[in-house]
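Duplicate of #3305? Posting structure anyway:
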């Protein structure tokens, strides 16, 4: 064998050996409520409205498949049962977290990886004690027991956690639960905002500076000054892991607001949240490109929310998403605006509202409003703001929308070609995308409980 060939063979062997190693870095990225409708609309918006030649990063991964999402109690799962499936590989009943249907605790892959020397980082745009992140460290019969969930995060030993806030610091009567002491006792420092984040070791919980909204960092589309956002938290999390556990780490990154926008049937907001989610994926992908033989990235969703579609009965065979380019506020924020006007009893006339709708939602500009629609809007305006005899609020899981705002967003969805079938979750399959070490093992359709099992098989660590 010529020397050159020997060298080539040695290189090849080295490459194979490296590839055969278990991944040192694992990113598990979950779009809460993100179905193919959300991804398709985000990609159509990315291509046809933002004129990006490059498709969304997740759509470019070499492996793309599907997962079923049903829970032990229903074909339509909630986030607690779905989070438990994705974190532990076990089915459970809706609203149960980290336990099987018999309330026996089941172990998350984050805990098993932690016990095997991996650093652990958990990131979400909703509360850090919410169902999806909670499934990676908590065991409670009811996902609403925020104090117990918070205590289990403090005791987890995990190096990094980030989210909007903690909801279990006071009980229902408003009494202090001592949860902050749990974090202090366990050496997990709480950082409100990112200012001093990079000086804190080894354990940190990053929370929003806005402690009034612990459930959510706010929607990207609302451009809230100083708000935490998913790409920012992801970058901070990667920095923290590289500083405190550079040898090996596991990060779970959740885009939680895709689900909230789905519950609200707020098309523009759901699209912008999905694009924001993809920007966080970009950061994990950049990390992968720097460590291609040591990194695995798996992207999926816990379930679909809203039954979102591209195209509807109003627009037929078209999806004119450019109608959404004038939208600068979420449905939630517009509803709050309407409620504020009603509460303040200020004089607010139809021309005032017309101006607001034109400026903040693109009506009569990017949104071509028909005469019939204008009549419907004006009548509802009259009833709501002149006669003060508003139709009942539209109640969804996370918000009660003023009826006028619900009408405005129904027209916005109708004219943009965005369809919705529910304000709840749906039971359709969700996407799975993968790249990196062992990614090919995700090529076949599977149940959501098989995803964590496959990750652990690639990591060569037995499930507990
Ligand atoms: Zn949901």
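Output from current build:
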């Amino acid at each position: 064998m010529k020397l050159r060939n020997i060298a080539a063979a040695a290189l090849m062997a080295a490459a194979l050996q490296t590839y055969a190693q278990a991944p040192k870095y694992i990113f598990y990225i979950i779009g809460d409520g993100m179905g193919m409708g959300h991804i398709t609309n985000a990609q159509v918006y990315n291509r046809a409205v933002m004129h990006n030649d490059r498709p969304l990063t997740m759509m470019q991964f070499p492996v793309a498949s599907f997962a079923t999402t049903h829970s032990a109690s229903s074909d339509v799962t909630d986030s607690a049962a779905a989070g438990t499936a994705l974190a532990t590989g076990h089915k459970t009943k809706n609203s149960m977290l980290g336990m099987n249907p018999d309330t026996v605790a089941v172990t998350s892959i984050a805990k098993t990886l932690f016990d095997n020397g991996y650093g652990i980082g958990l990131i979400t745009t909703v509360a850090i004690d919410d169902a999806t992140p909670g499934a990676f460290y908590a065991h409670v019969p009811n996902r609403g027991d925020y104090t117990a969930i918070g205590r289990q995060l403090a005791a987890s030993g995990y190096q990094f956690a980030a989210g909007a806030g903690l909801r279990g610091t006071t009980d229902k009567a408003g009494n202090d639960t001592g949860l902050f002491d749990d974090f202090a006792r366990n050496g997990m420092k709480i950082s409100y905002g990112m200012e001093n984040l990079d000086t804190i070791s080894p354990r940190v919980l990053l929370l929003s500076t806005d402690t009034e909204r612990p459930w959510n960092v706010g929607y990207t589309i609302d451009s809230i000054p100083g708000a935490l956002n998913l790409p920012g938290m992801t970058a901070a999390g990667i920095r923290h892991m590289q500083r405190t556990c550079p040898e090996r780490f596991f990060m779970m990154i959740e885009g939680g607001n895709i689900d909230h926008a789905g519950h609200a049937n707020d098309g523009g907001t759901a699209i912008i949240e999905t694009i924001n989610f993809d920007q966080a994926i970009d950061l994990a992908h950049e990390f992968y490109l720097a460590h291609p033989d040591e990194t695995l990235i798996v992207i999926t969703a816990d379930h679909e929310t809203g039954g979102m579609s591209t195209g509807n009965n109003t627009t037929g065979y078209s999806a004119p998403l450019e109608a959404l380019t004038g939208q600068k506020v979420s449905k939630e924020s517009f509803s709050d605006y309407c409620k504020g006007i009603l509460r303040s009893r200020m004089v607010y006339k139809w021309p005032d509202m017309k101006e607001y709708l034109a400026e903040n939602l693109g009506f009569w500009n990017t949104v071509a409003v028909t005469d019939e629609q204008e009549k419907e809007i004006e009548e509802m305006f009259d009833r709501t703001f002149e006669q003060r005899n508003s139709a009942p609020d539209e109640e969804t899981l996370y918000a009660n929308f003023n009826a006028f705002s619900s009408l405005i967003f129904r027209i916005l969805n109708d004219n943009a070609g965005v369809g919705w079938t529910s304000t709840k979750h749906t039971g359709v399959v969700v996407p799975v995308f993968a790249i990196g070490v062992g990614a090919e093992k995700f090529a076949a359709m599977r149940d959501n409980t098989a995803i964590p099992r496959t990750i652990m098989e690639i990591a060569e660590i037995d499930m507990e």
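Confirmed duplicate; merging threads. The longest strand covers residues 25-31. The chain is about 40% helix and 15% strand.
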